[in-house]
User: Fold these one by one.
Assistant:
Number 1:
Amino acid sequence: MVISVLRLIGLCLLFFFCPQGVASTVDGAPQGGLKPAPYSGIVRLNIPLKRNDGAKTYHVTEDCSGTLVDRDKGIIVTAWHCFDGKMDLTQPPKAWFNGGWQELRLGAHGGGIKDDWAITYLSDPNVVDAQAIPYALTDLVIGSIVTMAGYQRVGQRPDALWSLVQTTCAITKAGDYWVETDCHLETGASGGAVMQIKGGHTTLAGIISARSAQGGVWFVPMSRLNFYFSPP
């Protein structure tokens, strides 16, 4: 039951539309503490899946964000729950690079909402036209300031454009599975970047996961992936 509730929270949070904490828009510009983000290494992901509700199988396409951490190898980190379902072999997951959708494959992943991380690989890294964001595997301190960035729709219309936005907030709590912040983000930001900026140097500190019960945002620290990534 606990896992089911956590999963429901995670899916509602940054995956689907949730009314609490929605950033308002004025003339198409994001408001509520959000502003355009300048990071080419944070990309849109498009993930076709099959799910079963116990009565029937249905198709969904999840819109998420991901962060390029290795340009030469085409490695993108994102959230596991973006891949929660059966992948459609006729429609592989994709990332937006170089003006089009580029095929991805899923590598290692946490396999559950309590380990909400995934490592993906571009089938052809040569399509990358973005700069990777260096990662850090260090522990994070409560009260530290972080910047979160991911894709969200700007405007209320169904055909509203996706825009890369960011917000700055503080770490409020560190738990067994997530680090909690007082950030506010919405649909499409799942899998996006949590960054620390010190002395003009930006490092990836975590992966956006879900909204907390307090209305902030949980993220998975990059230190949880230290088995797969060497210290930079």
Number 2:
Amino acid sequence: MLVALAVCCAMIGLAPAASATESAVDKTNVKVHAKLDKNQVKVGEKVKLKGSLEIDAPARSGSDGLELLLVQKLQAGVWVNIADTSCRPNGNYSLNLSFSVSAQLSLRVYYPGTSIYAAASSEVFGLVVL
């Protein structure tokens, strides 16, 4: 009977109500900050990317480990991972990037989130590689 109800709801575009165990958990807001030390480099030249992972609440118990951050470039309308780094909540990160071809790049740093923290991304920033 429940299967038939679920099929009927799916056919008319309605989802069955979530159970108490499936209810959404409030996640802590996160802000990702990122900045390049240069906005133009030569092919093969390193550029330093610095930033921080800002958590809008004190770190929770068991959440003081390193958090993954992904450096992404916009390619054909899709964000593609090009590097990764990590930092602690309310911590700073720094890494060097270099590129092997000339291009005008749109970059961002993306935090995929966890069961505790919401996903977030930095503002988009540009880099010209000559």
Number 3:
Amino acid sequence: MFKRIKPLVLASVLSIGVGSASPMLMAAPAVSENVQKEVSADQAFPFLSKFLAVPVSERDEMTVAYLLKIKNGSARDGSIVLKHNGQSQKLSILGDGRISPLPTLSQLRGGARIVVSGPKDMSVAMKVRIYATETPAKTMPAAPLIKAVDQTSRVLKKIAGALYALTPKPDRLYFVGAGNGRVTLADGSVKILPKTAVADAYPAGTPYFVPADYQGAVSFTFDAAPSRIGIDDRAK
């Protein structure tokens, strides 16, 4: 969800495509048959080195993920390999598209390279997500998650610098797969969390929480433990 960054389009030329700073997927040209292309890891994972350079104590409640969207193929059809200091490591593409593991700061600074290969007609695009690091559960305290939103704003401000003033601000949490959500306030009252109206960056019906709208939030309860907790801006 980094705004006004240049996300990598992993395609036949592995070029940097100019995109909006939203989680919108970039269109990508087809990968030629048996093509193998290489780019620096720092280019492949934009802004990751800056994120990892932030002290852990300032980002312990949030993390970043880099996700791939594959068209005309699947994760089994291509490969992403990290090369560093004469060694090669195949990176996994998880079920939700996340690349794992991500390069470390020392690898990014040490000239690591990313090698991508894929068959004819397959196109791949990358997007960035920010997640809370708290373990999802049916009942969760509010304080760590509110802290995660605050940390995200501070970290993105450090990374983006002057551009941060021009971008939408991450001010809410999305509880993916949680069903109905409720927040309990300090006075004991319980409020029903609103839900996203349409499927976009998050599935339709995802409950979300804006800290500024619920002063004195103490805890959350959900029908089911969220599969992940996204930190983002406006409701999608």
Number 4:
Amino acid sequence: MTIKRKYLKHGDIVEIHLPLTNSFAYGKLVDPRKIRDPFEYPFFIRIYNFTCTEHIVDVSKINRQLLLAPFWLQGQSVAVTKANWKILANEPVDLHEEFIPDTKREFPIGSANPEKWTYVKRFNTIPISTEYAQIKHLDYSSGKNIEIVPFLVQLEILKQKGKDIKKEYGLKDWLEELYYKNFINMPVYVDLPEKLKEKLAC
């Protein structure tokens, strides 16, 4: 049974439709304003390495291993009303779920041929210069639009299988092209050593 609420809350477990495979992915929302070391930012989502071809009722069946590093959402206010995310439950957020990952940032931002690479900790505004090899496994600092989340999930699932989403299904618009370029050559997240997940390499 889903929760009939049109907005997201800290601790919500959500179901996300994956149109390419007509299946469902699952994640948990974390409001950084409500964690033990709070800061002002939009919701983060923890996407799980778990999909199902049918709607699930019991959220305890969800494998809580992460598919991707937690990232912040753009457009979270329309996740339910426009993107049709389903709220399945609301749970407490454990301390380990409050962890905010390091992220990378190119300079100049948006450049196809960056002059240098930096990383930021907990989305601090102060970038730290480093070599790309040290941070290639980190996600970009930019938020992810609600509409692109299913694409990112499907891209990562196919990467686990050694497949390329562009070759399998094609890309439908400029947004998918952008995220494909950024994510296709990143290491598969679930295959990273635990010490590198969400952390700087050095």
